Amino acid sequence: MNAAVEFLSVSRHFGQVRAVDRVDMTIAEGSFFAMLGPSGSGKTTCLRLISGFEKPSGGAIRIFGEDMGEVPPNRRHVNTVFQDYALFPHMNVRDNVAYGLMVKGVDRRARHGKAEEMLALVKLDGFGDRKPAQLSGGQRQRVALARALVNEPRVLLLDEPLGALDLKLREAMQDELKALQQRLGITFVFVTHDQGEALSMADRVAVFNEGRIAQIGTPAEVYDRPATRFVADFVGSSNVLPPALTQAFGGPARWASLRPEAIRLSTGPEARAKGRVTALRYLGAGTRVALETGGQEIAVLVPAGVPVPEVGATSGLTWDASALHVMEEA
Amino acid sequence: MHSDARPPLGLTLAAIGGLLFLHLPIVLIFLYAFTTEDRSYQFPPPDLTTKWFGVAWNRADIWPPLYLSLRVAAISSGLALVLGTLCAAAMARARFFGRDTVSLLVVLPIALPGIITGMSLRSAFAIADIPFSTWTIVLGHATFCIVIVYNNAVARFRRLGSSMLEASADLGANSFQTFRHVILPNLGSALLAGGMLAFALSFDEVIVTTFTAGQQSTLPIWMLNELVRPRQRPVTNVVAIVVFMATFLPILAAYYLTRGGEETAGGGK
């Protein structure tokens, strides 16, 4: 397996701010790689470092083994789907898609043929003559995708590609992007702050926090075995237990993570802890019950159909011993 | 709001009155170009004639000021197009300390009374020992022409955003291609509008010109002098119509161009 993109201790500082701080990562060729993190965590800067719109303050970036030190954006075999799509408003859809070929000097006929091919790929056949202003948000997004793919990039970068779409469309596009990536076999690197999006689409996820990678792994690894308190909380809003509580819950005196859906409410003898219900949040598919135990709030996800206690009631808690994940972080 | 909602009568009358107040004097200018009375502006005109157009055409003293005005307006709006656009490009893309101050300083000349601009330029030319010429007039006009172009261009640059330029580079375009295929088409109508407005402003400028022209006279200055001398007065009105056309038509065109431009530029959002 080849490395499509390698970061070797890459930093990017803006004045005093370390937007990206000594990041090491390898993105495998043909993978669907997600950079997940809250805003300001450095994930977008990393994307811009790959596309070449930012230059590293330190370290090196390699794309397919080639050092990108002095290579400007227009000479990298990498294309981007921009967050706001950045379509050219004065060109019709066909010319937008064909733009990458036009600047390379491909003749009109060949580039328009290729543009139509790309439009068909994103299911926008027959939209070539429209202007971007005449398209819906979802259609513009597809045009941006077709435009970025027309140059046959070896790596496609997607900056919060689904951020501006409504929920229904977002879910449909998630499946479509995933299918497209598998069909084309090119490396997709996408940035998102939506953990659900990252987990459902990506083969590998890098969780960013304050300019550094907090954890990198498969979605299951990141979700089930968060390396740090930050990852546990950010990915799936897990219960983060301080060492004392972990001990009280039967683990070592270390920070640990306990998923809300891994906890069951139980009043029977198998209850491992007790808590007082402080809040309820109805989510449709279940109810998120907040309980106070040992001076700490613990969230429990009670599936629909299971009775939910009232606020103020006391309830026992139980879980499988394997669900208590002790984190590497001290 | 629907068109069948009629405004009250008083408001309609006030609007009509306001429009008449604004535009009736202009109609008079047109009317007096056709009067047979050439010593005073007598109303109503005793009779109507078109002979003043022929007279104006044959008056040798009209042509040099007209050429000068056209030349000055063309050069100063051309200069403003280059400098104003470059300035707008820099201001729209760069973020630096004091940026807002610089932006204000660029726009300030248009807020400054022309008489101040004129005086300061005159004394500056005197200190630098620069003799008055077409170029001193051009410099004077450029001070406000640049602002017009800058304002038009900077607004368009802002709408253009940086991601479109990045998208162009990302797709393999070099800076020249980005300028040619993305910036220019999006900036074009704003620049044309800015250039036309600048041309119109320069063409009828009097105050700054009087300080920087020396012995030469531009068309507006020629007209001012002509009004003082009561001889073939309607000729001045004929020239006034020419000035009106030379300034009004570009402004009208600029209005339609920027209006249309908003539709296309807004499409990216």
From TrEMBL, chain A:
- Give the lineage: Bacteria, Pseudomonadati, Pseudomonadota, Alphaproteobacteria, Rhodobacterales
Keywords, sorted A to Z: ATP-binding, Nucleotide-binding, Transport
Against Gene3D superfamilies, the record matches this protein to: 2.40.50.100, P-loop containing nucleotide triphosphate hydrolases
Query: What domain of life?
Result: Bacteria
The keyword Chaperone is assigned to this record: no
Q: Which organism is it from?
A: Albidovulum sediminis
Spell out the protein name for this chain: ABC transporter ATP-binding protein
Every ABC transporter domain range = 5-235
Q: Which GO terms describe its molecular function?
A: ATP binding
TrEMBL record, chain B:
InterPro entries in UniProt: Bact_Polyamine_Transport, MetI-like, MetI-like_sf
- Ranges for domain ABC transmembrane type-1: 66-254
Sorted alphabetically, the keyword list is:
Cell membrane, Membrane, Transmembrane, Transmembrane helix, Transport
Q: Which Gene3D superfamilies match?
A: MetI-like
Main location per UniProt?
A: membrane
Bilayer topology term: Multi-pass membrane protein
Subcellular location per UniProt equals: Cell membrane
Sequence intervals crossing the membrane: 12-34, 72-92, 104-128, 134-154, 238-257
**UniProt keyword Cell membrane, yes or no:** yes
What the entry lists under PROSITE patterns is as follows: ABC_TM1
User: Quick check: keyword S-adenosyl-L-methionine in the entry?
Assistant: no
Would you say which domain of life the source belongs to?
Bacteria
Q: Which family does it belong to?
A: Belongs to the binding-protein-dependent transport system permease family. CysTW subfamily.
Protein name, entry field: ABC transporter permease
